[in-house]
Amino acid sequence: MIVIDSVSKRFRKTVALDNVSFEVRNSEVVGYVGLNGTGKTTTIRIAVGVLPPDKGDVYIDGYSVLRDKKRASMFIGWVPELPIYEMDFRALDYFVYLAGYYGLSVGEARELGRKLLDEVGLGDALNKKLAEFSQGMKKRFALAVSMINNPPNFLFDEVLNGLDPQGIAFFRELAVKFRREGRAVLFSSHILSEVEGICDRVVFIHRGRIIGVYTMDEIRYRASPAIEIDLSKIDRDVFNILSKYGEPEVLNNNKVILRKPRSDTEVILSELVSRGIGVREVKRVEKSLEEFFFSLVKEAEEGR
Ligand SMILES: Nc1ncnc2c1ncn2[C@@H]1O[C@H](COP(=O)(O)OP(=O)(O)OP(=O)(O)O)[C@@H](O)[C@H]1O
Ligand SMILES: [Mg+2]
Fold this sequence. Notes:
The protein has 304 residues and is of the alpha/beta class.
């Protein structure tokens, strides 16, 4: 379990994170979605202990990253956004070198390296120089390294960026497998639809602040087709009529949004009109997932 607890971070004048809190429970894949430069990578770097927060703390399976960094880092795997390596090394040799940090002997590390590099699809590239690795191969290598300790928690920072469809499918399936195994996975992305199929919940961040946390079901529901109706008045009767045709939600004194409509707009309209209810405007609305994301961003901007 990963707990981000009231974390703030500034870079000179830039407020990168402002009191950010959320958690990723075991057996859960959580999306971390925000536009470029909103603080996703900063959060993740603080969570793995490579960047100190100004305020707050992160707990990895209960271990404080500030007070017990060594132990906390043993329980978390990190696939960075832009993996940087000593490019002159060959893959397996570098894996063995990194595995030394975890206290593995050279023999153990070589054996584990062969197994993990094969598992991530790099079985044929054990002796290739990292300088010759493509972007996708570097991400796969970073993944193998993050798995050295078999950690129960993972942070994937924008791993799907720049991957081919096969690579995308590979990382998605892996996240789902990790969830099945009871691990906690945080999956950052700037595209909501990219994480849709794998996440249980999504934490939205904008300008260093959390602007919403929604389950994927909730997001799909809010992005599903609906009918927006502008009426002369809204009372119990109107609500009851609309409830026969879908799931009404009152937006304000005159506006209702009817989600999951079960009849054609005309049928609903004619019933309202025949009961003497004034209908001023009717609009079918259908948000894409990205429109849902942008509407959250817009609300946050307006509330600033
Ligand atoms: N080392 C640094 N020094 C100064 N400013 C930084 C540093 N790292 C990040 N920032 C700033 O902090 C803010 C958040 O950056 P961060 O990298 O966390 O965003 P992000 O959400 O990961 O973006 P992207 O989607 O582009 O990866 C940005 O304004 C960025 O310019
Ligand atoms: Mg980033």
